[in-house]
Amino acid sequence: MASVAEVKAAIDAALLHVQEGQIAVRSANDQLGEAQLNLATAVEGSGHESVQSAQAALAQAASELQDCLTATLRAVEQAETYVATL
Q1: CA 40, 47, 64 angle in degrees (round to 5)?
Q2: CA 69, 75, 76 angle in degrees (round to 5)?
Q3: With left for phi above 0 and alpha for psi between -120 and 50, is residue 44 left, alpha or beta?
Q4: Among the ranges given (11-15, 43-47, 49-53, 61-65), the one the predictor scored with the smallest mean pLDDT
Q5: pTM of the predicted model as reported, rounded to 2 decimal places
Q6: CB–CB of 18/76 below 8 Å?
Q7: Cα–Cα distances in Å, from 40 out to 28, 36, 48, 71?
Q8: pLDDT tens digit string along 51-82?
Q9: Residues 4 and 85: beta-carbon distance below 8 Å
Q10: How far does Cα 8 stand from its chain's mean position?
Q11: From CA 18, how far away is CA 59, in angstroms rounded?
């Protein structure tokens, strides 16, 4: 059986990976925002169905990235709460 110190160290390592993932998600969201702006500029005034679909897909992706970030923040909070009880 692992000691409390080992459990805490393992959780800390896991949280470090989560933080690295959060950085990647934020970076992806930034890149996605730039893509949305570039697309909007490139197709300004177009009412083509494909353009609207592309813009909707990018908006959905941005929303899902935000959901991912929110979920990881909750996970970190819960892990930290658990560590505090050890």
Answers
A1: 50
A2: 90
A3: beta
A4: 43-47
A5: 0.83
A6: yes
A7: 18, 6, 12, 29
A8: 899 999 999 999 999 999 999 999 999 999 99
A9: no
A10: 24
A11: 24
